Amino acid sequence: MQETLTVPPTAHSRSLVPTEDQPSTAGQPLRSGSRFSKASVIPPPVKSKAMHSGTNVYLMRRIIAEDADWSLATVPLLTELCIQHIVKNFQNNPILKHLLPEHQRKVLNHLSPDLPLAITANLIDDENYWHRCCVQRWPVSHSGHHGNSWKRTFFERHLENLIKHFIPGTTDPAVILGLLPLCRNYVRRIHVDQFLPPVQLPSLPQNGDQSDSGSEGEMEEPTMDHYQLGDLVAGLSQLEELDLVYGVKDCGMNFEWNLFLFTYRDCHSLAATIKACHTLKIFRLTRSRVDDDKARILIRSLLDHPTLEELDLSHNHITDRGARAAAKLLNHGRLRVLSLANNQVRAPGAQSLAHALAHNTNLLALNLRLNCIEDEGGQALAHALQTNRCLTTLHLGGNELSEPTATLLSQVLSVNTTLTSINLSCNHIGLDGGKQLLEGMSDNRTLLEFDLRLSGVAQESEYLIGQALCANREEARQRALNPSHFMSPLIAKGPENPVG
Question: Which of 78, 146, 345, 460 is the most core-located residue (most Cβ within 10 A)?
Fold first, then answer.
């Protein structure tokens, strides 16, 4: 006897309805020859609980979507979908300024730091985005030297990197100049500590043969010099600081002195560049083997410069002729800081600087450390400081000074009221010179720093000078906290408080 299948009715399914005979009971057997209407639906079979657990698969059945990315999670908001679309297509269709501020923040937080600068440079000002760009490219980044602006930090370091790896005659100048429309409003400082020379090719052998006299190792003279900054600086309307070192880093076994050669053509080009830059305030050219002739060319271009305030030519080969040119600049400019440290300036050069310093009303800091001005130059500077009323910082460390200079400086300390820092370290002041300086400090109320290390001063004198400096610093602190307490008697008495 053939077994029949009984299907109990359910509340959520329709019963089977044959077209010819409709059963009167739910448990009536179904005939195989019965025909069903189009509206009929076959209900899922329901197994009893007594059936084997392995056959309970129909009770656990769930709908499986054909889309592999489909999930049961909540559908995101339309706003989020729009933001995702904007981020995904930002390179082809950058939309930012027309969004609400909160939507702009979300877009910026998800943008990739690798987007082309042509899109992001003049569109995005968000500091968090540029911070991510800096950290991704330079893990060690600090915005303190770049005006505390991450956008400025990125563009200045990016431009510096292009200049440092520019090879004259090989690299296309458009690589650097093409960046000008994007960075002209953000670059205020350029610090380049490497200028690569042009590639030198071996000379071709004559008559098809190479001689055995060692000529195969000779290189022809370079046809070009280092990268010329003229066009670049002319396009940077906000440039204020130029810090350059003509040399090559990490040259290793390929070291040659020519790699560190600041040529005359480099010098003339740089002189014309800084002369034409009327926004320049700070110019540094250090460790570049600059001699007197090149220094005079550069300084001549800076005479009567409208904005230059600081000149640093330290660690070069400048002697007295270059120092005389710098002295002339003190009388024909607005220079406030001059540094000629670690050069070859001697007494005549120091005397020229002293003569200019006696009548100068702008210079605040003079650095002549690691030269050899000796007592003749030191005494000339001391005489100038007796009449000078603007210099605040003087560094004469390592200049072969001795007691005669200390004697005159003690007189300066008694009458000068503007000096706040003096450095006489690594000289030969001696015991008597230390006593002279201590006597001068007894009448001084403005000096805050006085470096006498390795100068032969007695420990007792150095200690007492230190105590006087501490008293001056405390008085300066009180003066800053309560300026009215230190007003002059003529101002303090007034008409309503007559003296006596």
Answer: 345
